[in-house]
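Here's what a typical entry looks like (Calcineurin-like phosphoesterase domain-containing protein):
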Amino acid sequence: MLLFLCATLFAGPVLTSPLRRSYGNHTHLPPLRFTSNGTFQLSIFEDLHFGENAWDPWGPQQDINSVKVMEQVLDAEKRTQFVVLNGDLITGENAYFDNATVKIDQIVGPMLDRGLTWASTYGNHDSQYNLSRHDILKREHQWPNARTQQMVHGPESGVSNYYLPVYPSDGGSEPCLLLWFFDSRGGVYYQQKNASGAHIGQPDWVDQSVADWFYETNKQLTHKHRRSIPSLAFVHIPTNASVTAQMQVGIDENRQPGINDDYPDLAQQAQGWCEDGRNDPDCVYGSQDVPFMQALTTIPGVMAVFSGHDHGDTWCYKWDSLLPGMNVKGNGLNLCFGQHTGYGGYGNWIRGSRQVLVTEAMLAHHEIETWIRLESGDAVGRVSLNATYGEDVYPATPNTKTDCPTCNYTIITDMPGTK
C-alpha cells in the first residue's frame, strides 16, 4: 500500500511552461530512484572553498585534503545514491579570470570515481569578479554525472533554481519525492564595477521571482496530479528563521543536537542589506527573504530545508510556530545545517557531510532520518525528523576540531597578478 501511495504521488511528463526550461545536458542520465529496499539516501557536501590561495603551497593542499574528506564519507556511506553540493564550491575571491572554474573538475572527481551523480546550489563565494555562476554550471556539465540545472532565467534570479524528481522502487514512472534547489546568490557581480572602481555587491537572498516560480510550479504539479508531493529543499544561505530560532528561542544540545558555534553571529539571507534595497553593512537585516520563507511554509509537502554558509552550525530545528519578532509562522518545517566539508573557508571544526535518508514508508508520515558522517569515520547527531522532533532527547554532538594535516600556514602571501 505504501509503495502504491509513493507511486501515485506524481505522474505525467515534466511541465512545458517556459519556467521549466533548463540548461545542461542532463537528460541522458537515468532518473533518481528509491532502491529495491525502498530507501533513498543522499550526502551533502558544502562550503568546499576550493581554490583558496592557490599560489601558496598550502592552498592546493587544502583541496587535496577536502577531496579526501569526500572520499572518506562516500566510502563510509556506501548506501549514498546521490550527492548535493550545497554552495561555496569555490573561493571566488581567489580565482583568476582565465581559469576560474577549473577546480570543479577536482571537486566532482570523488563522485565520478564512484559512479554517483550530483546536483549543486551556488553560494556567495561562487559569484565574484572573476567567477560566474553560469560558468560554473557550464563547467559542471562538461562531466556526464551533473544534474545541476537552471529553470528560472530572470536577470536577478540567480542560476541554481530547479527541482529533481525521485522515482519509486517498483520501477514506476511517477515520482514520489521532489528535491528543490534554490539560489541564495550573494557575493559580487561578475566583471562589474561601480563608478569608483569597486566591486558591486549582489543581493544575498532567494529572489522574489524564484519564490513566484516555486509557487507556480508547485501549483501546476499539484493541479496535474491532484495531490501535494513530499519534498526536500536545499539553499546555501539560511533564512531569518534560523537566526531567530537560535537567538530568540535557543538551540538545545540534546533536542537539537549539533555544533552551535556561530552564535551570535549566524549569517543569514538579506544580511547587510537595508529594507529600501541598499547594500549597507550598517543594516543588520533587510527582510527580503520573507517571500521565500512564506513559500517554504505555505507550499504543502516541504519536509526540510538544508543550508550551509555558517560553518560553525550543524543542528536541525523544527519551525512549528510564530517565532518572536517574525511575521512568518512556521508549519513544522525542519531547518537544518550540514557540516563544513572543505579545508578552505573559516573555522577548524572537523569536516564531514550531512546524510539524509528517506524511505517510501517514511514518506507517508513526512519523516526523515539524518546524521553527520565525519572524516574520522564517526557518525554523530543522528536524529529522526518526525512529529516529536524537538521533544525527543538525543546525545549531544561532540565539538571536535581538526587542522589540515599537510598545510603549512606560516607563509601567506597576497594574490599575485591582476585580479
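The two ends are 59 Å apart (CA to CA).

More examples are in the samples folder.
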